Amino acid sequence: MAGARKPGRNFLFVPGPTNVPDRILRAMDIAMEDHRSSDFPKLTLPLYEDLKRIFKTRDGQVVIFPSSGTGAWESALTNTLSPGDKLLASRFGQFSHLWIELARRHGLEVIVQEEEWGTGADPERIEEALREDKNHEIKGVLIVHNETATGVTSDVAAVRRAIDAANHPALLYVDGVSSIASIDFRMDEWGVDLAITGSQKGLMLPAGLGIVCASQKALATMKDAKCRHAYFDLGDQIKANATGYFPYTPALTLLHGLREALAMLEEEGLEHVFARHHRLASGTRAAVKAWGLRLCANEPKWQSDTVSAIMVPHGFNGADVIDRAYRRYNLALGAGLSQMAGKLFRIGHLGDLNELMLLGAIAGAEMAMRDVGIEVELGSGVAEAQAQFRDAAQLKVAAE
Ligand code: PLP
């Protein structure tokens, strides 16, 4: 039908799924193969070692499920806990909310610390709650490292210090879905016991892999865990994975894609990847300031380097900006979720992207905002982001 085609590239700036680089698409464009062949472990075994570098762990055990991140949430909880076990969780956005709800559906009792959306986990409150738990009934602390719904990053190291200060044995469960491979994450140094992620964000892949990394302490609790699980059994995976195989058919193409993604992260260098995400986020924040708008993250310490949630002025609906951006400019922006619905739109700046790609999204967001009547000056955000990116590029050249 004439007029139905949208020419050019779709500007995908939701905070996941992210752009899949051409290299990864080519790596996944393969004929199916026998996942029980004697060659298969040559593909799989190195994946675990390379993923350990991404999680920054030496002794952690990585498991790759054919699932989205939600499956990894479920696996981490059900393999290490029993119905009725208590968890302590901070809630400050839609994803921390959903993880809590998932835990409750498995019969876990969650003590929720409500935090204002736009802030993150409060280590002092966590320490206090753990100190009060004299009988050590709380078995785990749940933290969403990067709350994708509000663009907030919490300080996981500070949460670990809080647990240690309370001298409490609870396991530390961390959702790194929109942080791992984009924002610094240190499984061993921060004493994380169960870290989880998905394939469709920093790993630059389509959705379809749910990845769990378990500490030795977490693995030791598995034998007593009574929550029901079958498909998401960590033990079955660990046993089969030891020789490079899986207890059921793995997501073959995604594993080939993962091979390529890990190679790309290695070539760029993980620390450079983090620095790039910080640069891109700083440019976005400069644009937001130039527009006279504010972020949902209500203090600089909470600001995420992977996603910026931008509050629209009173009287406007963020959903209109998103719809206009999509229909007129072929730009996909992230929606406000739950209590943030309509109040904001999100620019995801994670995965495989660079400054000029992001400038396109900032320009499109400006146009869409103007289209719905928000008085931002065309070019103002672009100019500030450009200035930021130029300064950063000059500093980089000077350092070389
Ligand atoms: N946790 C966070 C922080 C997320 O951003 C998401 C999804 O965007 C999830 C968990 C759920 O992951 P999935 O949609 O892959 O199941």
Report what the structure shows.
- The chain has a seven-stranded mixed beta sheet with strand order 2-10-9-8-5-3-4, with helices on both faces. It has a four-stranded mixed beta sheet with strand order 1-12-13-11, with helices on both faces.
- With 400 residues, the chain is α/β, with parallel strands linked by helices.
- Strand 3, helix 4 (94-105) and strand 4 form a beta-alpha-beta unit.
- It contains 13 helices and 13 strands.
- Pyridoxal-5'-phosphate (PLP) is lined by residues 16, 68-70, 95, 144, 148, 175, 177-178, 198, 207.
Rg over CA atoms:
21 Å
Strand and helix order: EHHEHEHEHEEEHEEEHHHHEHEEHH
- Count the beta strands: 13
Runs in which pLDDT lies below 50 for 5 or more consecutive residues are none
The outline comes out as: globular
Distinct compounds present: pyridoxal-5'-phosphate
What does the main sheet amount to? Answer: 7 strands, mixed
Strand order, largest beta sheet: 2-10-9-8-5-3-4
Question: With helices defined by DSSP (H or I, 4 residues minimum), what is the helix count?
Answer: 13
Mean pLDDT, nearest integer?
97
Strand content: 15-25%
Summarize the amount of helix as a percent range. Answer: 40-55%
| Structural category | alpha/beta
Gap between N and C termini: 52 Å
